[in-house]
Every structure is written in structure tokens, then in C-alpha cells.
Amino acid sequence: MRSLTRKELEILSVFWKNPTKELYVKDVIQSATKLNKNTVPVVIKKLADEGFLKPSSVQKVGKTFAQYYLANVSEDEYIASQFSRKGRQNLFAAFIQKDAKKEELEDLAELLQKKLEQLNEE
Question: How many Cβ atoms from other residues are within 10 Å of residue 10's Cβ?
């Protein structure tokens, strides 16, 4: 998964804050106020073409119809994809070495165990 631009991340963050709510261009423009209103539809289309967003429905808005979208990639999935294997290993090593509490390590062990079980089922 490629790294996203600042604009793409800003738009995706609107979807990530509302993971089950279908949003259309105007919703994003109202939430991402720093972006130009002409930029938002172009970036949304690009994100949809690349699979970061998925079209969910077409609904009537006023006198016209609008395409609604949902995030197809969660924030956690995106962040995880940005770490190389070596980077993930370094991150875990740093986490473990830095005064990690027993409860935090148990939580991490549980997450790792679940992932191993999931991979074994595939």
C-alpha cells in the first residue's frame, strides 16, 4: 500500500472518524475545511480508484444524485502497512525494551496469538 499525501490523509480521516456512515463529497468538504472544495471530489475519486474508498450507494440529495462512499481501508490497516517488516520488528523491540507494563505485554501477546491463529486457519 502506498503512502498517502496530506490531502488524501485529511480526506480519509473524515471517513475513519465515521467508519460506518456513508459520506459524500459535500460531507467531506464540510468536515475537511482546510481543503479546496474543488480538490475534494478529485481526491475522493482517486482514493476510490485505488481502493482506499469504496462506493456504497447513490442517493438523491436535493434535486440531484450523489455518490456515497465508505472507507475500504481502516486507519489501523493503513498505519500498519506503512511499516516495513524490519520497521515493525524495531517498533516491537523498542516497545518491549521501554519499561513496558505487564498488562501491555499481555495485551500485545493476545493480539499476536489471535493473528497467529488467524494465519493458521488460512
Answer: 18
Q: What are 17-41's pLDDT values in tens digits? A: 999 999 999 999 999 778 899 999 9
- How many CA atoms does the CB half-sphere of 17 hold within 13 Å? 11
Grid coordinates representing 3? Answer: 503512502
User: What is the DSSP annotation of 59-75?
Assistant: EEETTEEEEEEEESS-H
Angle at 72 between CA 1 and CA 23, to 5 degrees: 130
Q: For residue 103, what are the domain limits?
A: 83-121
Task: Determine whether 2 is exposed, middle or buried from the number of CB atoms within 10 Å of its CB (0-12, 13-18, 19+).
Answer: exposed
List the grid coordinates of 15. Answer: 471517513
pTM comes to 0.68
Tell me, yes or no, whether 69 and 99 share the same domain: no
Q: How many residues does the chain have?
A: 122
Q: Are residues 67 and 87 in the same domain?
A: no
Report whether pLDDT(50) > 70.
yes
